[in-house]
Amino acid sequence: MISFLRGPVLHAGADSVVIDVSGVGFSILVPPDVARTAREGQELALHTSLVVREDSLTLFGFASRDELDVFGILIGVSGVGPKSALGVLSTLTIDRIAEAVAAEDDKPFRKVSGIGPKTAKMIALQLQGKLDGVSAAPAPAAPAQGGAVVAQVTQAVAGLGWPERTAAEAVERAAASASDADRGSVQSLLRLTLAALGPAKGGA
């Protein structure tokens, strides 16, 4: 089993990267945020899962061990294949997944491409009690009064068409580098986040 790879990036696509490991190029399917930040020639370390099928060998890679663990839990759900599991982790943060499961709320999972209402309900039910030991990496610290601002801006960015995971991470990065004044203003923090993300999705 290939569980970890580290090496310089040979190529980065929209949802995959190729890493050079001792002269061998490994093609790995990854969440879009990993592919987007990968730079050719720069070293990249990924926690990986090798999925073996009768006609293929496919590597899936994640920036953290917790994401890999959640991926393994997701593909254990009836009706969820590895690409659907990757879709969940590309759309939702680990904390959001845990919150939805704790509330038995299947609506966040319905937002994932390829997952219908029945499968979304199965995820919310079958992950009960399985995420207790998994937590997302701590987010950059922000002033307590800015928590509501970050939440509002994240919701606004997601409403413009970006996946919730991408929106949350972009807002956190913008908040971490913003001044106290900008961090406390919804309009200012939204402007900084959108400037970093680029044009709105879906023509929004």
Helices and strands in order:
Elements: E1 4-12, E2 16-21, E3 24-29, H1 32-37, E4 43-53, E5 56-62, H2 65-74, H3 82-91, H4 94-102, H5 107-110, H6 117-126, H7 147-159, H8 164-177, H9 180-183, H10 186-197
CATH superfamily of the largest domain, by name, is 5' to 3' exonuclease, C-terminal subdomain
* Helix and strand sequence: EEEHEEHHHHHHHHH
- Give the number of DSSP strands: 5
- What's the total helix number? 10
- Give me the CATH fold name of the largest domain: DNA polymerase, domain 1
**Secondary structure category:** alpha+beta
Low-pLDDT runs: 136-145
Please report which band the strand proportion falls in: under 5%, 5-15%, 15-25%, 25-35%, 35-45% or over 45%. Answer: 15-25%
Mean pLDDT across the residues is 86
What gross morphology would you assign? globular
Spatial strand sequence of the major β-sheet:
1-2-3-5-4
CATH architecture of the largest domain: Orthogonal Bundle
Q: What would you report as the Rg, rounded to the nearest angstrom?
A: 18 Å
Residues in helices, as a percent range = 40-55%
Largest sheet: 5 strands, mixed, barrel
Whole-number count of domains = 3
The level 1 CATH classification of the largest domain is Mainly Alpha
Alpha-carbon distance between the two ends: 43 Å
